[in-house]
Design goal:
alpha/beta, TIM Barrel, binds (5S)-5-amino-3-OXO-hexanoic acid, binds zinc ion, 14 strands, globular, eight-stranded parallel β-sheet
């Protein structure tokens, strides 16, 4: 089996210090969390950024500052900025970090309810617009799918030339409004992607580690981090993103799966070597 790529989603846009005091807002806090995850075995940092008061932002200058600071501490790590941002942001606001020519970025493949009155809007035209920008800028998209229909959308848009192969999916499972994190649903998603595609799984909340194990044994890849889950075990807050990554590394070792370095992750995902 291929080595395991671990992605750390270190802060997200919907989780705050009131949920876990270690959620990073400042540049220094982002570096601390990214480095803890990298040192533990993460090869990709999925990145959202905040203002110092915790407000989510897609500001290009803020992304540049945080990305440069993370790269100074973790020189070979793959930084994957979010183009999802936070609910309610405009498309061009969300796309700002792609102007920094990252190796990867997320591409959200459909609209969904996002709890309460929130709607995370990604119309077909939005996905096409984002897909074209990523092709133009040489960025590999991580195709965020919150439901099976979003895989179908990505496959249709691949046929129309807006998303290149080989495709790399992220099954985000357990969002309030998306597909659940049950094993049955994991098997359904996993069986719905092309044979030459890769995938990672991001289980939300209590689904994080059970789905990590499913991907480990299936030959997929794993995303963990405060964006998805702030607990190391039931009722116990994780001290850092690194602690969440360490747990995945332990689980992977139990099942005989080795951990990919960032360079190995680049070769598995077809990114240019650095
Ligand atoms: N914050 C969510 C609304 C992504 O990073 O592309 C969207 C999200 C997905 O987190
Ligand atoms: Zn995200």
């Amino acid at each position: 089996m291929e080595k395991l790529i671990i992605t750390a989603a270190i802060c997200g846009a919907e989780v705050f210090k009131k949920h876990n005091p270690a959620v990073p807002y400042t540049v220094e806090e982002c570096v601390r969390e990214a480095k803890s995850a990298y040192d533990a075995g993460a090869s990709i940092i999925h990145l959202h950024v905040r203002m110092d008061d915790g407000t989510p932002t897609q500001d290009k200058a803020r992304f540049k500052e945080v990305m440069n600071a993370i790269l100074a501490a973790c020189p070979d790590v793959i930084i994957q900025p979010s183009t999802g941002g936070a609910v309610g942001m405009t498309n061009d606001e969300r796309l700002q970090p792609t102007e920094l020519n990252p190796e990867m970025a997320t591409l959200d493949c459909g609209t969904l309810n996002f709890g309460g009155d929130d709607i995370f809007e990604n119309t077909e035209n939005t996905i096409i617009y984002f897909g074209k920008k990523m092709i133009e800028r040489g960025i590999k998209p991580e195709l965020e799918v919150f439901d099976k229909s979003m895989i179908d959308m990505a496959l249709r848009l691949h046929k129309k030339g807006y998303i290149n192969k080989p495709m790399h999916f992220d099954f985000v499972m357990g969002v309030n409004g998306g597909i659940s994190g049950e094993l049955r649903d994991f098997v359904f998603l996993r069986g719905s992607i092309p044979h030459d595609a890769t995938y990672t799984v991001a289980g939300i909340g209590r689904y994080e580690f059970p789905l990590a194990v499913a991907a480990i044994v299936d030959g997929g890849h794993v995303r963990v981090g405060f964006e998805d889950n702030v607990f190391i075990s039931k009722g116990v807050l994780a001290k850092s993103n690194g602690e969440l990554v360490e747990k995945v590394v332990r689980l992977a070792r139990e099942f005989g799966r080795e951990i990919a370095t960032p360079q190995e992750a680049r070769s598995i995902l077809g990114l240019n070597q650095k």
